């Protein structure tokens, strides 16, 4: 008789009320399981050390194994808070306040955050804010108070208030006089 694949059958629950014994993994098996998980997680998104530690600790009850996995992944060069900070700081369309906040949320150390923020070019940030404002200005003008909407939008994006007001004053100087006469009731 030829070998046929067996149909998989679900196990019937035990009738004696006893729970099935859980398979207890050896420390080596647990380490291997966590290491594979760490590589999958890092393959989807760059994670900070803090983020990966939190994820590993949710998957094991042995913090020493989680720390060993973290050390191994970092030793292999797959985990770098500096790299995460640089990629977050390089995002366009967000200001320095939002970058700093995001890095703090992700658990990046304050020294790394300060170093990356010092490397950020303020002229490039101003140009990004100006580009965003120019691109969205028509949308803001359709509202009752375009300056208020534009200010709120750029604040949510993390740009400093002084920069926002300077850009809004420049934009207001560009607006034709027709807008002023409409507001006066003509």
From TrEMBL:
<feature type="region of interest" description="Disordered">
    <location>
        <begin position="1"/>
        <end position="27"/>
    </location>
</feature>
<feature type="compositionally biased region" description="Basic and acidic residues">
    <location>
        <begin position="13"/>
        <end position="27"/>
    </location>
</feature>
<dbReference type="GO" id="GO:0005737">
    <property type="term" value="C:cytoplasm"/>
</dbReference>
<dbReference type="InterPro" id="IPR036388">
    <property type="entry name" value="WH-like_DNA-bd_sf"/>
</dbReference>
<comment type="function">
    <text>Modulates RecA activity.</text>
</comment>
<protein>
    <recommendedName>
        <fullName>Regulatory protein RecX</fullName>
    </recommendedName>
</protein>
<dbReference type="GO" id="GO:0006282">
    <property type="term" value="P:regulation of DNA repair"/>
</dbReference>
<keyword id="KW-0963">Cytoplasm</keyword>
<comment type="similarity">
    <text>Belongs to the RecX family.</text>
</comment>
<dbReference type="InterPro" id="IPR003783">
    <property type="entry name" value="Regulatory_RecX"/>
</dbReference>
